[in-house]
Amino acid sequence: MIHSAIVPVAGLGTRLLPATKSQPKEMLPVAKKPIVQYVVEELAAAGIERILFITGRGKTSIENHFDHDPELDRSLRQNDKNGLLSELEYERLAVHYFYTRQRWQRGLGDAVLCGENFAGEEPFLVALGDSIIGLNGHSTISRRIAEVYESERAACVIAVEEVPHELTASYGVVAPESEGDVFRIRELVEKPAPDRAPSNLAIAGRYVFSPVIFDMIRRVEPDRRGEIQLTDAIRLLAASGQPVVGVRLAPGERRYDIGNFRSYFETFLEFALADPDYGAELRQRLRRLCR
Ligand code: G1P
User: Fold this and answer.
1) CATH classification at residue 69
2) pLDDT digit string (tens) for 84-95?
């Protein structure tokens, strides 16, 4: 059983400026909740009890969001706002939160390395704080990769999704050894041009690692931008003969990657249309607007 997760949230979110000038992109709302809340709820549903956020400057609103606010609670109770109180039930998730800062922008591999002390000798999950999996974050992918980690005695398990071949340069891409939903991974390349991509299976922002990954991260050379790529560390792990396994997202288990405005707008719209209170009305409004 895997109990701990690392959630990197240190990125600057420059592709979402000006929205992210003074607030973390992980705190942008998608329908009623900030992005990172969907991620945390997915992890809690997978049995995760300890979450370490790898934060950076300007990310303190994430801490505030997962903290209890007694003044807000008192004011809602005094004013009989019980409906709103139920919106704050996520504060009671059975999760212990930890925070540490990545002091320099040295890439995702370096961010995960900041969690070495936290992880100790135990395997752990990594869930990217800007990726929601499944409509409303209702996905069992974290639980599934944790189960595959145990059943396959893997050193690393990665969730992957099919992407259009021409988009491989936006993702880490894996080369599977076989067909099927669960497969050994032979090779990984970070953001390959389509003609160099070994497949169209992209790394989908959810991973399980044995602590041996930390040694691999330390061996990775920085890329042209001075960043230590997590994908390169996983490639070293696979090359050393350790089992690295891929698990496909299920059909319909879409990944919503809030990295740019196009995907942010689409995700917001899709989640808002699915909202039980406002979805139907919004649908009608949209029909009229699109006439
Ligand atoms: C990161 C990873 C990449 C992965 C992607 C998923 O890239 O480096 O391998 O496919 O997340 O969102 P980023 O989106 O941070 O550039």
Assistant:
1) 3.90.550.10
2) 888 888 998 999
